[in-house]
Design brief:
alpha/beta, 12 helices
Length: 304
């Protein structure tokens, strides 16, 4: 903004912007905890637009058109009724467009008749072919409900990510997990504090790609475990196969061939914590899944 426009009073700036057809937005309410403004009083907008400020502009435009028309030289070889050259006609049309932007009434008053050599477009030409018509409903994906799942998680030995959807990491459960890691030969068996995770993290929003967004959230959760001093190298999931949260979580993790394709980590599927703690068969099934990855992981020192 120039120094001249800065020196103008506020109400005069509003008049210039209104004459140019620019909507002026001004604050009328103070937000909570906002700093007080130096200028808080603004005049209320009038119901009907004031066209007095634009009359001078219309008069100048009409005078310019009159001067252009009278400035055309006439020669014996060129009659006075000759049509206006293309350059002058373009200037008149440009002035008319400016007036049409200023007020709607000026557009009606200055609308010129269509020349004889111009043909109005037909109704068929105005309509695009059906194949070229835009289909916004098909182009944009419809909002869908997000996937919903929840689990409790902790890290053991700085590289074993333990998840459960229907249980809690009680003292007996932690003692059992410590015994399993000891049998595997894991020297570092410290456990982090359990963390509750639920998706979506914020309710009330729709989703265009529920599965992709849930996988991004799960990937970010796994990466966040590195801030607790470790890096996941294997995932254990204790859950009832019929549990709804476990089914959704299995789809999000993209479990196939004993691996989480989402996290690119070995995956151990076990029964719920209650079943593992009370059933010898559930313990044996868990051990059978741990043996193939025992040597693979224990040969590699845990990341510090």
């Amino acid at each position: 903004m120039s120094q001249h426009s800065q020196a103008l009073p506020t109400h005069q700036q509003a008049q210039y912007l209104d004459a140019m057809g620019i909507t002026l937005w001004v604050p009328r309410y103070r937000l909570p905890n906002a700093q007080a403004s130096s200028e808080c009083e603004w005049p209320e907008s009038q119901a009907a637009p004031d066209t007095a400020s634009t009359q001078g502009l219309h008069q100048l435009l009409k005078d310019a058109e009159t001067a252009q028309t009278s400035a055309v030289p006439t020669t014996p070889h060129q009659p006075e009724a000759a049509e206006v050259p293309p350059q002058q006609g373009g200037g008149v049309q440009h002035s008319a467009q400016i007036r049409s932007l200023l007020t709607p009434d000026a557009q009606k008053a200055d609308q010129a008749p269509t020349p004889d050599h111009e043909v109005a477009p037909s109704a068929d030409a105005a309509q695009p072919p059906p194949s070229e018509q835009a289909t916004p409903a098909a182009a944009s994906a419809e909002p869908q409900a997000p996937l919903r799942f929840a689990f409790n998680a902790l890290m053991l030995g700085q590289r074993w990510l333990i998840l459960t959807t229907d249980g809690a990491f009680t003292a007996p459960v932690l003692a059992f997990l410590d015994a399993v890691l000891s049998a595997l030969g894991e020297p570092h068996r410290t456990a982090t504090r359990p963390v509750d995770f639920h998706w979506p993290m914020i309710d009330g929003f729709s989703s265009e790609a529920p599965l992709e967004e849930a996988r991004e959230g799960m990937r970010a959760f796994a990466e966040g475990r590195k801030h607790q001093g470790g890096a996941p190298e294997c995932v254990w999931l204790f859950a009832d196969p019929q549990d709804e949260h476990a089914q959704v979580l299995s789809e999000v993790l993209n479990i196939a061939e004993g691996r989480s394709q989402l996290l690119s980590l070995p995956m151990v599927r076990a029964a719920s914590l209650d079943d593992v703690m009370t059933s010898a068969d559930a313990k044996r099934q868990l051990w059978r899944q741990l043996l193939p990855i025992q040597q693979q992981l224990l040969d590699t020192p845990a990341a510090r």
